Amino acid sequence: MKWFVILMMVMLPTALSYGQDQDIPNEYLIKVKYLLNIPLFSEANSKISSTTSYAICLVGDTPLESILASSKGIVIKKLPLAVYKVEELRQIDSCQMLFVASSERYRLQILLSEAHRHGIMTISDMRDFARLGGMIGLLTIDNRIAFDLNLSAAGKASISFSSHLLKLAHDIIK
User: Fold this and answer.
1) d(Cα 23, Cα 158) in Å, to the nearest integer?
2) What's CA 157's distance to the chain center, in Å?
3) Pairing of β 121-124 and β 54-59
4) pLDDT per residue over 149-158, tens digit each?
């Protein structure tokens, strides 16, 4: 519980500052904070050491793109944040994280297979995302954003999550 409080204290003030001049629901502001903070509680393969930025890639239609675009100057794992909109599968090779919008459900298994093969963390607010093979599924429970973790999917991509993050998960899928 202590780590949850710390995580939310880190996440909420910055999330709220993003929305001051925009008509973006707080739900998406908080989801962006998850995207920016979850990597701090994970370990990936050596892919990060061979790159010059931490690339969060977005596939599909999502309001997160405009919020992330205003996140210039943020550093994740000692690397500057880069945000890319992905149209084709071949574009995900340079991503460290792939956010899959609900609009991409029709090609979810192809996206997940390719992301896991490249060691890319996958995250979405798509219903049952973690149960369908994604790593981190964002969900709303009692008007709060929570997340499920799929350890099997993470293992396929050589990604592990800290015990602190595991304690905060709503559900852990093995």
Assistant:
1) 38
2) 14
3) unpaired
4) 999 999 999 9
- Contact in structure between 138 and 147 (CB atoms under 8 Å): yes
74-125 confidence digits (pLDDT tens)? 999 999 999 999 999 889 998 999 999 999 999 999 999 999 999 999 999 9
d(CA 60, CA 57): 10
Nearest partner of 41 among 167, 146, 174, judged by Cα:
167
Instruction: Report the C-alpha gap between 151 and 21 in whole angstroms.
Output: 38
Look at the alpha carbons of 128, 131, 12, 51 in this order and tell me if their dihedral is positive or negative.
negative
Containing H/E element for 58?
strand 54-59
Structural domains present in the chain = 2-173 (3.40.50)
**DSSP symbols for 131-148:** TTT-SEEEEEETTEEEEE
